[in-house]
Design goal:
- The complex is a heterodimer of chains A (385) and B (137).
- Chain A has one domain: 3-Layer(aba) Sandwich (Peroxisomal Thiolase, Chain A, domain 1).
- Chain A is built from 12 helices and 11 strands.
- The longest helix of chain A is centred in the N-terminal third of the chain and has 16 residues.
- Chain A is globular.
- Chain B has 137 residues and is mainly beta.
- The longest helix of chain B is centred in the N-terminal third of the chain and has 8 residues.
- Chain B is globular.
- The chains are: A alpha/beta (385), B mainly beta (137).
- At the A-B interface, helix 4 and strand 5 of A face strand 2, strand 4, strand 5 and strand 6 of B.
- Bound molecules: zinc ion.
Chain lengths: 385, 137
Amino acid sequence: MGLRDRAAIAGVGYTPFSKDSGVSTLTLAIDAILAALDDAGLSVDDVDALATHRVGDSTPPWVVAPALGIPEVSWYLDQFGGGSVSHAVIGQAAMAVATGVARTVVCYRAINARSEFRMGGTGRGVAPVYDAQYQAPYGYFAPPQQFAMFTRAHMLKYGTTHEQLGSIAVGQRANAAKNPQALKRDPITIEDYLASRWIAEPLRLLDCCLETDGACAVVVTSAERARDLAAPPVLISGAVWGGGDSFLSGQGGDFTVSEAARIAPRLYAMAGVGPEDIDVAELYDCFTYSVLVQLEDYGFCAKGEGGPYAASGAIRPDGALPVNTHGGFLSEGYVHGINHVAEAVAQLRGTAGDRQVSGAEVALSTAQPGYVLAGTSALILRADR
Amino acid sequence: MSLGERPRPQVDRDSAPWWEAVRRHELLVQECVDCGTLRFPPRAICGRCRSRRSGWAPVRGTGRVASWIVNHQVFMRAFADEVPYAVLHVRLDEADDLFMYGDLAGADPADVTPGMPVQAVFTDIDDDLTLVRWRPR
Ligand SMILES: [Zn+2]
């Protein structure tokens, strides 16, 4: 059935997360790739493909490969895009492996997102993205602004509240307290959230993820081969991406529905599971609202009920659907999506330590749901047991 | 700091006629000759019926606030003296799924309300650029 369970994640690796790595994105990439290979019990000589994504902010595969001395690259992917394509990179690696085009792909994302390249400006120009000419002259070009616009639309249509958004930030910080590599581990309260300064109303500072320097990498190979390697394989059961949207015309005019709603049916069909089968979800959390809307659009609650659902405790570690168990981008760090995949792998291996979700067998990990560059991507991962 | 220091639109070959009309203080959208669908921003084909035939249709410049933000963070130095400022997502009165962005003219960000009726106004920034902004009506 298509791509289901044909490829697996055999290793994950991180650099430390920081506000100033002091090194190049090439060095970050190398460190994360070597760590992921070590985790898989592989060496650089086993690698024949590299895949990444970037928006002019990182080092491409065709620079990383010779730096590492990879003898021959049989396939590479250098995809344009930010968080929305983060999971598409791994999906394409799974396709390359499933078709025999590549044998061992290392997917990586390496960014100095605080010390060198801050999303949304603060020094640099506006990114050359479509529709920017109709927005940037008004001071509208940064992701927090774009998410704030549609957070407000959701509040207007469904009565979503600041306290509901805040419950996501507070809950994820509590998760990060159990994650040794998280950047922010001190607990916060809803009062702290409500007192944090405005960035772009209706979003506050504590609605926003952490601009982070760091890299993360995952090794993708065939399911058969992964079973012979050092770490327990995690199967890629579903991998989909798609979308294409406009906030100007021709889309029906309801922007409270994200691109996740469009890809979710295909994702569940490929993996042969439904929302009720997901044991743990790592939902792209560039902002709190991103989590809230995906709870709806991946089918965990009814449309418009994301706020009450999040605030009910359902997404806490002891709830019906533990979400962002590592603290997410809001509290662990922001490596544009791939650290969600790495956390899902840890949960499915049963190696997540104090934050382990008991008996986790199926995980959802998702990308930016289409409010910045339109389109999104997601994976359903499964323990191989 | 003045409006003239803001980032300038990167006009492309599809959008040039639209910006030239704004320069003349005319607000246009494209209208499909075959199915009548209004579209913005400008492009060569109708996404509904795939017709390549379109004309420029004037719109009244009236709409309602579908959503808005009040921006506080200085993401770009050109806006340092303008914060806090509002950016509106305006639903044009001509169609339910036809929107434009713009900033708020002649009102305080705190006065914006859901569905607030607004009117396009044209601000000449310099000899080459005019921007469409929105004021309450
Ligand atoms: Zn048409």
